[in-house]
Design a protein that fits this description.
single chain, alpha/beta, Rossmann fold, Arc Repressor Mutant, subunit A, 2 domains, five-stranded parallel sheet, 8 helices, about 40% helix, elongated, binds calcium ion
Length: about 230
């Protein structure tokens, strides 16, 4: 059953960005760009959780929160640009369940929502772990665990990112530029040799014989691919 999220946020770009990210994670999303509409929607459409911006025109986030709490115990996560406001949110018995400080990442929001839902509805939220598999390799994205031929292996963050993108694109050649861009971003101090070094380290951890790799293959002059 999809989880219904109500976003009450006057900055349209933020509201829409959030909605987009949450829909991608299979949430159902409704949006309100001001407090009155938000309060109205909160009462009419019975969301499972509400993301509520603190600074709203008209009815403020404080007032909306207080008004919702008079009739409902729906979980509320407050959103604010000011971390120093948040002690008040939680301290003033407004009844908010958690808060997020702008700017936030999509992952952070989703993680917070799931955590709050777990607390609010202990038995109803079942999470399935996202696991990438290729023979002998099991990468549990949700738990951040890697098993290679039945043994736990630990990776550095860059090795983890590198393996993840290779596994997600199993069988496809990924160019060096793409890998550099995805794993290191616009880190201009990056030496191109760094990619090869990390591939070598990764092979030492996941290949039976790192000298003759069978999992991470070099495609000469192009890049690398995970064998399929
Ligand atoms: Ca605002």
């Amino acid at each position: 059953m999809p989880v219904n999220v109500l976003i009450i946020e006057d900055e349209k770009a933020i509201a829409e960005g959030l909605a987009y990210a949450l829909r991608k994670d299979d949430f159902q999303v409704e949006m309100a760009l001001d407090g009155n509409t938000g309060l109205d929607l909160a009462r009419r459409s019975h969301p499972d959780i509400i993301l509520l911006d603190l600074m709203l025109p008209g009815l403020s986030g404080w007032e909306v929160c207080r008004a919702i709490r008079r009739t409902s115990s729906v979980p509320i996560i407050m959103i604010t640009a000011r971390a120093d406001e948040m002690d008040r949110v939680l301290g003033l018995e407004l009844g908010a369940d958690d808060y997020i400080v702008k700017p936030f990442s999509r992952r952070e929001v989703t993680a917070r929502i799931r955590a709050v839902l777990r607390r609010a509805y202990p038995s109803s939220v079942q999470e399935t772990d996202e696991i990438l598999k290729s023979d002998g390799i099991e990468m549990n994205i949700s738990r951040h665990e890697l098993m290679v031929d039945g043994a736990a292996v630990s990776l550095t963050p860059k090795e983890w990112d590198l393996l993840q993108i290779l596994l997600r694109n199993k069988g496809r050649v990924l160019t060096r530029d793409l890998l550099l861009d995805r794993v290191w971003g616009d880190d201009s101090f990056m030496d191109r040799g760094t990619l090869d070094v990390h591939i070598r380290w990764l092979r030492q951890k996941i290949e039976a014989d790192p000298g003759t790799p069978r999992r991470i293959l070099t495609v000469r002059g192009v890049g690398y691919k995970f064998s399929d």
